[in-house]
Design a protein that fits this description.
Elements lengths: L5 E2 L1 E7 L7 E7 L2 E6 L2 E8 L3 H8 L2 E6 L5 H8 L6 H5 L4 E3 L6 E3 L4 E13 L2 E13 L7 E4 L2 E4 L3
């Protein structure tokens, strides 16, 4: 599957149950796709028992920021295993809160999609989360997407 090029997204949610003010959670995903136009649905594949999968089992609203090629550092930061707390990962990233999800949305991303989980489907060591799109916002229509191919982040056409 490393031969299949994929776009890179940052999946985010706000976990209101973590601490007095809650905590923001994020993860890099390359398994994100459109599922349906009517109704408007998307899908993200999450590793079973990961922090994000656990949060989205309780928190129905989340966001996906479609990253541009200039945001490779963000993708790498949120893809690290054994990383520092998510609070510190968001510290120096420009973002705003999604109006529908309350999740952090990366400023300057190509687009952002806010969703409410419609269905969760166990699939091997992953859980497929299907979300109804609540809003779509295009931030940078002229930018190029960040892609992932053969184990590395790539520029489109490289």
């Amino acid at each position: 599957m490393s031969r299949l090029a994929a776009g890179v997204t940052l999946i985010t949610a706000h976990d209101p149950e973590d601490g007095p003010a809650g905590e923001d959670v994020g993860m890099t995903a390359t398994a994100f796709m459109s599922v349906s136009l009517d109704p408007l649905l998307v899908l993200v594949s999450l590793r079973a028992e990961s922090r994000m999968e656990e949060v989205l089992s309780r928190q129905p609203c989340w966001a996906a920021s479609i990253l541009s090629e200039s945001q490779r550092h963000i993708a790498g930061r949120f893809a690290m295993r054994g990383r520092i707390s998510d609070r510190l990962l968001f510290e120096d990233i420009s973002y705003y809160r999604g109006a529908h999800s309350g999740a952090p949305v990366v400023s300057g991303s190509l687009a952002a999609v806010e969703c409410r989980t419609e269905q969760r489907v166990p699939a091997g060591d992953h859980v497929l989360v299907i979300g109804r799109v609540l809003s779509v916002r295009t931030h940078s229509p002229e930018g190029a997407p960040l892609t992932y191919f053969r184990g590395r982040y790539r520029r489109l056409g490289s």
